Amino acid sequence: MESLADTIDPTNRTTNTYRATFRLLFEPRSPELSWSGHAHARKKVSWIAGLDLAAIKRVAKAHDTTVTTVMLAAVSRALTEYLDTHGDRRVSDINLMVPMSIEPVADELPEELGNHLTIILMRLPLGIDDADELIDAIATSMSRVRYSFEPHVNFATMLGVAVTPGPVAHAVVDLLANKTVGQLTSVPGPVSTVRIAGTPVEGIPGWVPMSGDQAFGICIFSYNGKVSVGIATDAGLVPDPGEVAGMIEDKFATFAGWDEED
User: Fold this and answer.
1) CA neighbours within 13 Å on the CB side: how many for 28?
2) How far is CA 86 from CA 182, 183, 239, 247, in A?
3) C-alpha pair distances (Å), 97 with each of 24, 58, 104, 211
4) N or C end: fewer C-beta atoms under 10 angstroms in the chain?
5) Which percentage of the chain shows pLDDT scores above 90?
6) Is-above-0.85 flag for pTM?
7) Which helix (H) or strand (E) holds 251?
8) Cα–Cα distance, 19 to 148 (Å, whole number)
9) Residues 80-107: pLDDT tens digits?
10) Can you list the alpha helix ranges (DSSP code H) found in 86-149?
11) pLDDT grade for 75, boundaries at 50, 70 and 90
12) Are the C-beta atoms of residues 36 and 215 closer than 8 Å to each other?
């Protein structure tokens, strides 16, 4: 199905929806790597703070793409390095579970109840050294989601799971979650300083929850011209989230040099 989809324009809504449905039903469990295994109750966190949003925007403009795509490229390079460091075999991509807001399914709902949340299975390419090639691959992956009904198909699936008996619901959630290695979210926050009781807030880190046997979660959040990245991990599968954080920070630090490389 992936091979067929690659031969068709990434904005073809029909192809992309069939692809998404096929993946939802038949995508296998995430490949066995050093972060694989059964999740535990104990979690660990680390974070990066103070990344320059303006620098990321300059890279995005130079590559004719978005800030989120550039951030995902940095994450891709960092996770590739993590797997190499831990002696894993090279894989061409991994799946991440990404939350997404969709339009209300009923027009009569009051406005304050209109934030329906669903998830998508985003394919993140790994092992691509060339910046343009990596950014293009990520942009194509995101376009296939944008030009599809995948969020709505997944939302309908979630509604169905919600009314099933508990054991069945848990089994389905684990089945979907285990197609991915973790969750990722990229959220724009306030563009200027906010205050709490008159005190300026210096930064806002965040961490996303994990389901099933997911090994980690990554939360990218921008606030007042800076970007923070919160990394949460299963303590048994990824015992040092600081290692992942350091690799992501190093990849962000190379942004200024990407234009010279290409």
Assistant:
1) 3
2) 18, 21, 12, 13
3) 12, 28, 21, 10
4) C
5) 54
6) yes
7) helix 241-253
8) 9
9) 999 999 999 989 999 999 988 876 555 6
10) 131-146
11) very high
12) yes
Q: How is the chain split among helix, strand and coil, in percent rounded to 5?
A: 45, 20, 35
The values of phi and psi at residue 257, to 5°, are -90, -5
Instruction: For residue 241, count CB atoms less than 10 angstroms from its CB and return exposed for 0-12, middle for 13-18, buried for 19 or more.
Output: buried
Whether the per-residue pLDDT at 61 is higher than 60: the answer is yes
- Tell me if 13 sits within 8 A of 148, measured CB to CB: yes
Helix, strand or coil, per DSSP, at residue 43: strand
What is the per-residue pLDDT across 161-182, written as a single tens digit (0 to 9) for each? 888 998 998 888 888 899 999 9
- Starting at the edge strand found earlier in the chain, the sheet holding 182-188 runs 43-52, 226-234, 216-223, 182-188, 93-102, 116-125
Contact by Cβ (8 Å): 90, 83? yes
Residue 192, both tokens: 């200027």
Strand boundaries in the chain, DSSP class E: 43-52, 93-102, 116-125, 182-188, 195-196, 199-200, 216-223, 226-234
In this prediction, residue 252 has a pLDDT band, given cuts at 50, 70 and 90, of confident
147 contacts: CB under 8 Å, gap ≥ 6: 10, 11, 12, 13, 16
Q: Would you say the C-alpha torsion 152, 64, 136, 179 has a positive or negative sign?
A: negative
- Count of residues in the chain: 262
Which of 225, 226, 227 has the alpha carbon at shortest distance from 248?
227
